[in-house]
Specification:
about 325 residues, about 35% helix, alpha/beta, 14 strands, Rossmann fold, Dihydrodipicolinate Reductase, domain 2, 6-stranded mixed beta sheet, 6-stranded parallel beta sheet
Length: about 325
């Protein structure tokens, strides 16, 4: 099928190209799209070079699928234009996520909500994706009452500019800044802008998106999101309170059997998930440090790690497309 990648020259767009190739997605014609200043640049796919074209040219080609990673404003303006010519859009921005008539999908969790009528599908926030993959099977078994999550997020989640800032600082080079403060040897407890309630936009994304994806507004969620000088993936410290009690043996059994999850948890051998060691360049969600919260009944602590550019963005989008093909919704 004809596949457009909107934002093909960015970190996530480049990763989408890589994952389409790795998973042997049925691309008959690739249509790389980026901003006007990038038109004419070449991107590589399956050992061929493809010139970047403008978004209006891409719409005129009427692709069957468009994977968007070009920011919310671009998505709001152009996703409906693609949909109008019959294209199925899977959008990685926050533009459509909380709109009531748009589906917000993590395939392991709620792919069943998709239908052939869904022409604009939202890809969730990276931090939300990895958390709900790990928590949905536990929610099914014990019903979650409350989630307290603190994130430790890679600079790659901000983009190329942030990666360059970190590397420049490590080399002592004074270059372009993505953050208001140094990131090397530092921790920045702000991701996205602050809202009137004192939380950041990123934190409220995790609150609202979790409820929508899990299909349960009764789940209470509170989040603190933090940027750290790391590459390879995002990490999360998650505390979960359940309605029903559990045994740790059963928790391990459920997580080991769940799709998309790898359990790495052996304190005696100092084994636990890490972004650089385990998550980087993989598509799984890694779970470890699994232990009962001794301060609160029916509560559990988890450490969840995943590659934010892959499962947290590009891979999840491609998996949505693969599901649509498997159901005959995308041809």
């Amino acid at each position: 099928m004809k596949v457009a990648i909107v934002g093909a020259t960015g970190l996530v767009g480049s990763k989408m190209l890589q994952i389409l190739e790795e998973r042997n997605f049925p691309v008959s014609e690739l249509i790389p799209v980026a901003s006007e200043k990038s038109v004419g640049k070449l991107v590589s796919f399956k050992r061929k070079e493809y010139p970047v074209i403008s978004i209006n040219d891409a719409i005129s080609r009427k692709p069957e699928l468009a994977l968007f990673s070009a920011g919310g404003n671009t998505s709001l303006q152009y996703a409906p234009e693609f949909a109008a010519v019959g294209t199925t859009v899977i959008d990685n921005s926050s533009a459509w996520r909380m709109q009531p008539d748009k589906k917000l999908v993590v395939p392991e969790v709620n792919a069943h909500v998709l239908t052939s009528d869904d022409k604009i599908i939202a890809n969730p926030n990276c931090s939300t994706i990895q958390m709900v993959v790990a928590l949905k099977p536990l929610h099914d078994a014990y019903k979650i009452k409350r989630i307290v999550v603190s994130t430790y997020q890679s600079v790659t989640g901000t983009g190329v500019k942030a990666v360059n800032q970190l590397m420049n600082e490590r080399k002592g080079i004074d270059g372009e800044k993505a953050y208001a403060y140094p990131i090397d040897l530092n921790v920045i407890p702000q991701i996205d802008v602050f809202l009137e309630n004192g939380y950041t936009k990123e934190e409220m994304k995790m609150v609202n998106e979790t409820k929508k994806i899990m299909g349960d507004d009764s789940i209470k969620v509170t989040a603190t999101t933090v940027r750290i000088p790391v590459m390879g993936g995002h990490s999360e410290s998650v505390n979960v309170e359940f309605e029903n009690d559990f045994t740790l043996e059963k928790i391990f059994e459920i997580l080991n059997q769940a799709p998309g999850i790898k359990v790495i948890d052996d304190p005696s051998r100092q084994l636990y998930p890490m972004p650089l060691i385990h998550a980087h360049n993989t598509d799984d969600v890694y779970v470890g440090r699994i232990r009962r919260d001794e301060s609160q009944p029916k509560s559990l602590n988890l450490w969840i790690v995943s590659d934010n550019l892959r499962k947290g963005a590009a891979t999840n989008a491609v998996q949505i497309a693969e599901y649509l093909i498997s159901k005959g919704f995308l041809k």
